[in-house]
Write a structure and sequence with these properties.
Elements lengths: L1 H7 L5 H4 L1 H21 L2 H4 L2 H18 L6 H21 L3 H16 L4 H15 L1
């Protein structure tokens, strides 16, 4: 909401105020298509139906839940970035992606109470990281 407060100083037009949600949607789609789908395996990643199904489901959910000036689009970006960071930390057995994921989870929680989903991704991977 602080970002939107700064943006009102420029103009309060509806399209301008929804720009952070649009940018968050584009970033979320890039993460899904470039990071998440390839991690599902070569067989799934090479199938066009998997990409089209992911795109359709993403669009359906995004249009219904994240098309306003609420903080959920930003929380969605931080949540998926947190999940990808912790998954990379587990796969590479390094703590730097986990540290970045922790910061992203804190930012998601700071953006709104639904950011707790990013903290849940962090807590779910702690057992593997500790081992």
């Amino acid at each position: 909401y602080d970002l939107l407060g700064l943006m009102v100083n420029v103009t309060a037009a509806s399209t301008w105020m929804r720009l952070p949600g649009l940018i968050a949607g584009l970033v979320t789609w890039l993460i899904l298509s470039r990071e998440v789908l390839p991690r599902l395996g070569v067989k799934i990643n090479n199938r066009q139906v998997a990409h089209w199904t992911t795109a359709a489901m993403f669009e359906l959910f995004w249009m219904v839940y994240n098309n306003g000036t609420r903080p959920e689009p930003v929380i969605a970006v931080f949540a998926i970035l947190t999940w990808v960071s912790f998954e990379r930390a587990i796969a590479t057995r390094r703590l730097l992606p986990a540290a970045v994921g922790t910061i992203l989870a804190a930012l998601a929680l700071g953006a709104g109470p639904t950011g707790l989903i990013a903290v849940a991704a962090m807590l779910a991977s702690l057992g593997v990281l500790i081992r």
